[in-house]
Every structure is written in structure tokens, then in C-alpha cells.
């Protein structure tokens, strides 16, 4: 943005009178703009000969030194997070469009095997940082590693999973290297003309999809929701290289230390393969209340599912999420408790053989898809269902006896 005065200026002083910041003087019968000008446009609008012009478009900066697409190789205890393969798949498509390379940054410990494996998925270069200190994720070490390598190699795009780790690391790295970050993207593309990364994510509670660009800073950084991008496929004999990076981590000031890792005791089951699923939504109200959903699932020998609202509230982990950005399921029986039936949830479960919906709102759209609809408070209905099931009734009989 900038402001300038053309030769047409007659020195009429109208602009001086309109300027709220006294940022204009007349010299040699011409307006002169002073440093305290805020580009508010008052002078431009009053000038009778249109001699004052504000350039609204900022000149595009030269980012020709920034090249290549990077993916953060998130791992835990030596296992790559599945989102890495999704980002490699998407990163490959972006890199191809830009005619640039795709690299993975792989901080960890004794992780050479992972690096070799990544090459088989179409990665051109793996930056391997193999240090004992990086065995477990740590904000300070990982931020340092990512920021130092970005400063050294100038990638044009950096992608991370919108996982617990990625959501913590992404903003820290972006702040450290002074660039922007679009969180939680569900789609990425390259603008054909400007070659800028188009980062699309739901906004305003999911009511619109916003496409965000990072015009003036590099790299362009995004975290991407797991489960929405197509994972890279294995390619035989792909030729990539592993570059070992040595960074001095003794410079890093640690504010946190991993003392112990306690495994979550999970009722973990692959919901995609379950025959019966009992899912809880926002209507369940709390993580503790999910025990009721678990009890019903246990009574039926089924698995526990959840809507995204329940997952986002932290009541249950993401691997239980059913829907567009969770798992698609098609069990014999799907019981939706306190779930409204948003389209993103429905796409993940509407092929179930029998759908039983428990909801206190008779107008909830889940009822349009339900085989049996139980209108009422789930905290009253579920205990009664459990009681009936324990006394030998089938779930169909129990649901049918309640249906209103
Ligand atoms: C890009 C994108 C992807 C998404 N992906 C997914 C996805 O994968 N899965 C998903 O589920 N959502 C997804 N969503 C979110 C989705 O749009 C909805 O916001 C979400 O499904 C709502 O969850 P819910 O039904 O639990 O909550 P709500 O819509 O708030 O519904 C809660 C329901 O509980 C009922 N209720 C409240 N108290 C009780 C009670 N005591 N007894 C009985 N009923 C009660 C209410 O009547 C209400 O109908 C996505 C959204 C976007 C934008």
C-alpha cells in the first residue's frame, strides 16, 4: 500500500482540511504527504482533480528463494501417525503442481527405518534428525528443530497433522519464524496463477468453508485434519534421499520434561469392523456420562462411537468419531444417543442396517434416518434399555417397546 500525489495537484488545500491526522503540507503549490499518514483515504476522496492516489494493492513480495513442500513426520514411539501418509499424499499433489520436491522432516530417535519407508511413498527427501532427546515429543525441542531447518532450507509450504502434537507444534513454529498458519484445513490446493497455497477450512461453526491465503510471508503453514486427505500409496523403487541433520539441542531451554508416559486404558476397538455401535453425542453432556454409553455397548457386546461434538469436547478420543472426518461405519445396529443427525455425522453411519436414535428433540433430523426413534431423555431411556437387555430381551424388542 502507498500514497502519492500526481502533477495535476493545484495546491487547493482541500486535502489538508480533510486530513484528520495533519499529515499533508503544501510545498511549491503541491500537496506533500507526511510520514504520519495512515492511508485513511480522506484526502483522496475530496481532491477535486483526483491528484491524490492510494495504491490499495500491496506489491507481491519476491519469494523465489522459497521452494518445496514439507511435511512434519509426526511419530510416537517409532510409529508414524497415519496423518503423515495423508499429508504425503496431498503434499505430493501440491509439489507436482508447483513442479517442486516433497520432503518429510523426521525428528525422532533411531528412526532411519521410518525414513527409508517414507521414500517408498513418493517422498523426494527425508530430513532425518536422530537424537535421544527427540524420542518423545517435546514442544521446545521440536519447535527448535523445525524452526532451524525451515530457516536453513526455506520451504514454501509446511504441513502438519491437526493432531494433539501438530496443534501444539504448528503455532509455536509459525510464531518463531514469523509466518501465518491456517489450522484445521480440510482441503488444500495451489492457485494456478499466483502459485499460492489455497488453504480451506470450515469457519463460523462449520457454516461456511473459508479459503485462506498467506500472501506476505513464507513458508505457508497449515495443519490438516486427520482422515480427510487421501493417503499416499506405496510406490516401488521410488528414488529419494535421506539427509541427516545435526542440530545442537543443548541450546534449547526446556520448560517441560517428560517424566513418564501413561497409556490410556481404552475400550479400543476398530469401530469400522464392529457389528454393533452405541454412539454418544453432545447430548451425553460429559466424559463421565459416557460411562452410560459404554455400559450399553458392553451389555450388547458392541463398540463405542461418538459424534465430533463429543470428541471435540474432549469426552472421548478421535478414534471413536463416526462421520466425514472420523470413521465410516456400517454395523448391523447403530444406536445414536444425544446426536442430532448433522449431515457430516450421517454420511459416516447411514448405511447401518438398523439405526436406533435416542433424542429428546422430536424434530432432530436423526429421526429421519432411524429405524426406531426413541424420543426422550437418554439418561432415563438407556438405563431402562440396559435393564430390559439384561433380563433377556433383544435390542430390537427393547427399542420397539419404547418407540413413540
Ligand atoms: C468439515 C466438517 C466435518 C465434520 N465431520 C464430522 C464428523 O466426522 N462426525 C460428526 O459427528 N460431526 C462432524 N462434523 C460436525 C457436525 O456438523 C455436527 O456439528 C456434529 O455432528 C454435531 O454433533 P452432535 O449431534 O453430537 O451435537 P448437536 O448437534 O449439538 O446435537 C446434540 C443432540 O443431543 C440432543 N440431546 C441433548 N440432551 C439430550 C438428552 N439428555 N437426551 C437425549 N437427547 C439429548 C439434542 O436434542 C441434540 O439433538 C463436521 C463438521 C464439519 C464442518
UniProtKB/TrEMBL annotation:
InterPro entries in alphabetical order: 4Fe4S_Fe-S-bd, 4Fe4S_Fe_S_CS, DHS-like_NAD/FAD-binding_dom, ETF_a/b_N, ETF_a/FixB, ETF_alpha_N, ETF_asu_C, ETF_asu_C_CS
> What biological-process terms (Gene Ontology) are attached?
fatty acid beta-oxidation using acyl-CoA dehydrogenase
**What Pfam families has UniProt attached to this entry?**
ETF, ETF_alpha, Fer4_7
Essential cofactor(s): FAD
Q: How is the cofactor bound?
A: Binds 1 FAD per dimer.
Q: List the CDD domains hit by this protein, alphabetically.
A: ETF_alpha
Q: Any idea where the 4Fe-4S ferredoxin-type domain is?
A: 1-29, 30-57
What keywords does the record list, in alphabetical order? Electron transport, FAD, Flavoprotein, Iron, Iron-sulfur, Metal-binding, Transport
Q: Where are the transmembrane segments?
A: none
Q: Which SUPFAM superfamilies match?
A: 4Fe-4S ferredoxins, Adenine nucleotide alpha hydrolases-like, DHS-like NAD/FAD-binding domain
Give the top-rank taxon of the lineage listed in the UniProt record for this protein.
Bacteria
Sites binding FAD sit at: 282, 307-308, 321-325, 338-345, 359
Molecular functions (GO terms): electron transfer activity; flavin adenine dinucleotide binding; iron-sulfur cluster binding; metal ion binding
Q: Which PANTHER family match?
A: ELECTRON TRANSFER FLAVOPROTEIN ALPHA, ELECTRON TRANSFER FLAVOPROTEIN SUBUNIT ALPHA, MITOCHONDRIAL
Q: Which family does it belong to?
A: Belongs to the ETF alpha-subunit/FixB family.
Q: What is this protein called?
A: 4Fe-4S dicluster domain-containing protein
Amino acid at each position: 500500500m502507498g500514497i502519492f500525489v500526481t502533477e495535476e495537484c493545484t495546491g487547493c488545500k482541500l486535502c489538508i482540511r480533510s486530513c484528520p491526522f495533519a499529515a499533508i503540507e503544501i510545498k511549491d503549490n503541491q500537496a506533500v504527504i507526511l510520514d504520519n499518514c495512515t492511508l485513511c483515504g480522506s484526502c483522496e476522496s475530496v481532491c477535486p482533480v483526483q491528484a491524490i492516489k492510494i495504491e490499495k494493492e500491496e506489491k507481491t513480495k519476491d519469494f523465489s528463494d522459497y521452494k518445496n513442500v514439507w511435511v512434519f513426520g509426526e511419530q510416537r514411539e517409532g510409529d508414524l501417525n497415519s496423518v503423515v501418509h495423508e499429508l504425503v499424499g496431498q503434499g505430493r499433489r501440491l509439489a507436482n503442481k508447483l513442479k517442486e520436491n516433497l520432503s518429510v522432516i523426521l525428528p525422532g530417535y533411531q528412526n532411519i527405518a521410518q525414513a527409508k519407508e517414507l521414500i517408498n511413498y513418493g517422498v523426494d527427501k527425508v530430513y532425518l534428525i536422530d537424537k535421544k532427546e527427540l524420542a518423545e515429543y517435546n514442544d521446545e525441542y521440536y519447535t527448535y528443530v523445525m524452526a532451524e531447518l525451515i530457516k536453513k532450507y526455506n520451504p514454501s509450504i509446511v504441513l502438519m497433522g491437526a493432531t494433539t502434537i501438530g496443534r501444539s507444534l504448528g503455532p509455536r513454529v509459525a510464531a518463531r519464524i514469523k509466518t501465518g498458519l491456517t489450522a484445521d484445513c480440510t482441503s488444500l490446493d495451489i492457485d494456478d496463477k499466483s502459485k499460492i497455497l489455497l488453504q480451506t477450512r470450515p469457519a463460523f461453526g462449520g457454516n461456511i468453508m473459508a479459503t485462506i491465503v498467506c500472501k506476505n510471508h513464507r513458508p505457508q503453514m497449515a495443519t490438516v485434519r486427520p482422515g480427510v486427505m487421501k493417503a499416499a500409496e506405496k510406490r516401488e523403487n521410488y528414488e529419494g534421499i535421506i539427509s541427516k541433520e545435526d542440530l545442537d539441542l543443548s541450546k534449547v531451554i526446556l520448560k517441560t520434561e517428560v517424566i513418564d508416559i501413561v497409556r490410556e486404558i481404552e475400550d479400543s476397538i476398530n469401530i469400522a469392523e464392529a457389528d454393533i455401535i452405541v454412539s454418544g453425542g453432545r447430548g451425553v453432556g460429559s466424559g463421565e456420562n459416557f460411562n452410560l454409553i459404554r455400559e450399553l455397548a458392553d451389555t450388547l457386546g458392541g463398540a463405542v462411537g461418538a459424534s465430533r461434538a463429543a470428541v471435540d469436547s474432549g469426552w472421548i478420543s478421535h478414534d471413536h468419531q463416526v462421520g466425514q472426518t472420523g470413521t465410516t461405519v456400517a454395523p448391523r445396529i447403530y444406536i445414536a444417543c444425544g446426536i442430532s443427525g448433522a449431515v457430516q455425522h450421517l454420511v459416516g453411519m447411514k448405511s447401518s442396517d438398523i439405526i436406533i436414535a435416542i433424542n429428546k428433540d422430536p424434530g432432530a433430523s436423526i429421526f429421519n434416518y432411524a429405524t426406531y426413534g426413541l424420543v426422550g431423555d437418554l439418561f432415563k431411556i438407556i438405563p431402562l434399555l440396559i435393564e430390559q437387555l439384561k433380563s433377556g430381551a433383544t435390542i430390537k424388542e427393547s427399542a420397539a417397546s419404547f418407540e413413540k
